[in-house]
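for the record, two folds in this file. i put them one after another cuz i was lazy. first one right below, seq on top, structure tokens after. the second one comes after a little note so u can tell where it starts
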Amino acid sequence: MNEKIRVREVRLVDPEGGQIGIKSIEEARWLANELGLDLVEVAPDARPPVVRLMDYGKWKYEQSVKAREARKKQSRTVVKEVQFRPKIGAGDFEVKRKRVEKFLRDNDKVKATMRFRGREVTHPEIGYEILRRLAESVEDVGVVEVPPRLEGRQMTMILAPVKRRRTDDEPEAPEATDED
């Protein structure tokens, strides 16, 4: 940028992107100074290097504004974990099912973990059955993204929220009749 450009000749580009031509670096600096703009090297590998007349501070600010807007629109996926045991009671299962449902409604993914202790690991079918029952009971708000998988002494399944269409949120418009 400006004084840091160390070549004799440059291809000069105006602020709108139009070609000015090949100029000496002194002439390009003088022109940038007269217009109150900066001389910014945009293609240093070209022969001769390409420099552009621009307000560098303004450009840098606009880039930061665009980056901030992109971050606002970006959604972060959060994975919440709910742990189960093979000998879970019906009431406890309901409490955990409701918690899973709440997480899915809040658009978070849910990792359902079945923890086995001692000899419980010899009956993984009990774990599969409980996780299958969970997936069936929340199928209106969540879908199974990763099916139950046994890894060591625990079995995990990941549920993702169901993608809702915007038309579901909007009330239906009354149908037009020909009587009007």
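(here's the note) second protein begins now
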Amino acid sequence: MKPLSLPIAPRVLVVALRRLGDVLLTTPLIRSLKRAYPQASIDALVFAGTEGILTGNPDLSGIFTIPQRPRLRETLALALRLGRRYDLALSTQTGDRPTALAIIAARQSAGPLEPSGLAAAVKRLGLSRSYVRDSSQHRVLDILGLAELLGITAHAEIVCPTGAVRSALVPTRPYAVVHAAPMFIYKRWTADGWRNLAAALRERGLATVITGAATDRVYLDDLWRGSDVVRLDGKLEWPELAGAIAAAQAYIGPDTAITHLAAATGTPTVALYGPTDPRLWGPWPVGGLDRPWAAAGTMQRRGNVWLVQNPLPCLPCQLEGCDRRLDSHSQCLDELSVAQVMTAVDQALAMQRAA
């Protein structure tokens, strides 16, 4: 497609109003824009609470936030603030609010559309350029459809927060990072599974560093009570978290934004997946996917990522657990064995030793 006509130093806005992991997965698009327009000033508009994952991103000039459930007054104030301030605005979603904000913010706008419907028809009229999103693609490739739409080269590289962890916080001996607390219960592995994993890491001469949010404290206190682990949950800002993972021998975690971050650091990453479809949301390894993730399998490897599943016939269901709610259990994760996870961990550690 023919590139847009833009000033030599355009002002660009990228709208990404979703969760942490989704915001991280927009960084390849932001990098593509910066490579195509080196003199551009690029800003991101994200939900409050997700901006930290963009800390230190060298491709961004600024980050603006909006509450996840803004009042009408806040939305109107933001619209007035953005009004025609940019030369180009991109919505990374098909939703009404991000699309409307992109249209309001810039002289030229672009974004994805749903395949049909009145709302899609109206948005097509408002946007300068649009395309029908391919919901069967991995989210990174889906978002990079905007690069193709703009006629620029896509760079499928996730950009991590930059920084180093304070040396006093991490063990002096080799360690693995374990993140046991996803945002939603239906993505959790079992408590016994995590404890046995930590014991197996200890047998291999590794310390176990625990990460998590301050809000995970009650769950993690119960999970790790009496265990020989190093607790860093609630102690690290995003750059330090990325630094701690980058310095680890391996990372093990469930389907969560931290696992996507781990994969992007280049650290050997073992991802435990349950209901989520990895074809759409599997971790993106350094260098990208040489081939797509399969829907289900006992263990798959792509680059520096091992994806472990318990492939029941219903996997991946893309539902919120077996009870269809956020606090549900998931049989596929409840029955995932420590031996299966450790097979992947041992392969990841062997890769690290070889490197």
